[in-house]
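TASK: fixed-backbone design
INPUT:
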């Protein structure tokens, strides 16, 4: 099964060209290693309305099964990714965020500071990941095993029952 991904890096410094985006490419590498596809990658500033608009456009386009965001999930004042995501999703997917935090907590107490969420808009799953390449990849690795089934369910695939 091919899963189509969009990867959105949210960072003021990377959007201004002051720092290279390392998380987006690291996530893309992991996605491609699964023989899935990365349809689009972009870098935006930590601006809630801009993030909302981009997530809405991507989710409503029908081009993506999963949108991964990286960055903007911490306690800094400009970290607004969860708020932007919450504003545009139609259904929560709290188990994904809970699993990522629980797994991360085994590696670092800083996992308690992650505010990332996951949710569904239409047939698209949106998952907030940390901004560090290591944290983003580790969190994605936690949920990788369930993504094919999640996408099957979102697409009303009749074969989705076979993986229960």
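OUTPUT:
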């Amino acid at each position: 099964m091919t899963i189509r991904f969009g990867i959105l890096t949210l960072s003021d410094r990377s959007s201004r060209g002051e720092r290279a985006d390392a998380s987006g490419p690291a996530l893309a590498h992991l996605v491609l290693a699964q023989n899935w596809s990365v349809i689009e990658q972009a870098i935006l500033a930590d601006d809630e309305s801009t993030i909302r608009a981009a997530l809405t456009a991507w989710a409503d386009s029908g081009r993506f099964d999963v949108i991964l965001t990286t960055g903007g999930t911490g306690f800094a004042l400009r970290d607004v990714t969860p708020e932007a995501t919450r504003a545009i999703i139609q259904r929560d997917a709290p188990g994904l965020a809970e699993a990522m935090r629980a797994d991360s907590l085994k590696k670092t107490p800083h996992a308690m500071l992650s505010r990332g969420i996951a949710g569904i808009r239409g047939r698209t799953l949106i998952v907030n990941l940390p901004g560090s390449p290591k944290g983003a990849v580790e969190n994605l690795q936690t949920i990788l095993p369930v993504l094919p089934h999640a996408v099957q369910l979102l697409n009303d695939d009749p074969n989705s029952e076979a993986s229960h």
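COMMENT: The CA atoms of residues 135 and 164 lie 29 Å apart.
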